[in-house]
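Below: protein 1.
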Amino acid sequence: MEKRELKRNFKNYIDLIRPFTLLAPIIVSSCIMIASYFYNVFIGDFSSNWWLTIIPASFALAILNGASNTLNQVTDIKTDRISKPYRPLVSGNIPIKKALILSIILYSLAVIISIFINQMFCLLVLMIAFFSITYSIPPRFKDMLFVNQLWIAIPRGLLGILASWSVFGSSINPLPLTIGFIAMFFLIGGSITKDIFDNDADKKTGTRTLVNTFGVKKAATYSLPFMVFPFCYIPILIHCGILDSHFWILTFLAIPAFLIFYLMIKEDRKVGFLENTPSWSLMYVTYFVFAFGFSVLTVFGAITA
């Protein structure tokens, strides 16, 4: 009986931190860190123990995201009672006080690990933590129209990529800054996919989003340029000498960006298998492919240089 109870509690806490969303910082950060290593450090020797640095650094960013997820559920409990009554806090499977303690522990652990990576990485982790905390706690930026999209895109796009790059290189290098801004603008548009399912609940609890203010179709239309143009500008960035020519293939990610838009205006609040809409899932997958593609191309460029 105790084993069964322990197993149930463990599952509840896993559900609380929302493990699928942790894949984003793990996959994206690992890809960017590998790219940074080959771009800044690699000298033809594959025997280096670079992965011993990547594992704790990417873990720090993952648990930072878990801390943010947990805190957001604590402060979003009124919304979740309407749209996601199965979540562990709403169902009473985890007390709010314990969830808040878990969030504080995860934030603290992420910062402690970051200290052992380097100063810039630690600073960027603190900045990401600032954005995620002020997004959730009153007076919270999540409730502010337009600002709420920026408060997701800046830490998860720009700052997340800069933090990952800073593990082995300078975060003010034009390459990570350019890739970071592309990711940020993509997420400014793509982040509204999470608001479709919570449309009614957000409206009832005072959170203003593009979706509940203008409707799904208009919100999708407003977001389309942010999702598509960053990838379409890549050839221009190559022409200006900001990006190397082998990055041109990333332009094709404008295609799934258009597909995200299509799914948004067609699906309304249809739920996929990952607790949200298919457009939300595709947005994450596109971001994964962008980070992975950038990493492969950077490694290829470093090896063949």
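Below: protein 2.
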Amino acid sequence: MREITVGVVAPAYVNVPLWVAQQRGLLERRGLRVTEQVLGSTHGVTNALRDGAVDIGLTAPEGSIADAVGGGPLRVVAGLIDRPPLTMIATPRHSNVSDLRGGRIGTSSLTEGTRHVAERMLAEHGLSYPADYDFAIEGSHIERWKALQAGTIDAALQMIPYDDIATDAGFTSLGPVTEEFALNAVCVRVPAQRSVVTPFLEALAEATEWFRDHIEESAAIAAAHTSVEPHYALRACCKLAADGVIPRDLRAGRGALAAVLAALRSSGLIPPEAPDPIVTALDDSYLP
């Protein structure tokens, strides 16, 4: 049995396929025993992958794309989330997006993940960074929920099921993310062992298909991995199973990747004249 470590940001519901693969023995059937390492932030996973502290990362792809464009060893080998199951949640004193002008928006990183999704979402409502608001690095959606409750931030994008938990607690929903954006991906450091990565992706793909046909059972698995009440777990899994959220073949959608590249370029994290970042950073040859 091959022991591998998979770095994740948090026990987030975007990792349900991994939990299903573990629970149903889909990884062990392929000779893999996986240990999850929770690293608390997207850049934490990216750094651990670059340093060799984890074998595979399930995280926002921006860090790996920027690394590859800069000549580094990180690559994106599969997509996990093409339409982020996120909602902008604000403290109760805010009733609309314009109320966030001059506020603090919680995020897990200034270079990856929710920062870019939030920036694009707020721009649609006429708010631009840094003129109209500041970002506050708070960590994963779990830490952002704590910050919202403490009132140290004005709003944050919240992952399922914390969006429902927050609104049920009286916090304000300013609407879900509706655009395509590659929020979560499978990333590796090359040269990666194909005998490990491909079976891992096979197990994830099988788990994803099983998940879609067994929402209630998957919700029970997810609830056991988190401190979330079962009815919230079920609501979250129903949202995760919606069309367009998880790519069916684990091939990240071109529209979702294009949104990531636009964010990286607008933030200056990759130069506009760089060679095609998708050609450089994406290697889907590991997919089954």
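The beta strands are 2-8, 32-38, 56-59, 74-81, 86-90, 103-107, 133-137, 155-159, 172-176, 184-189.
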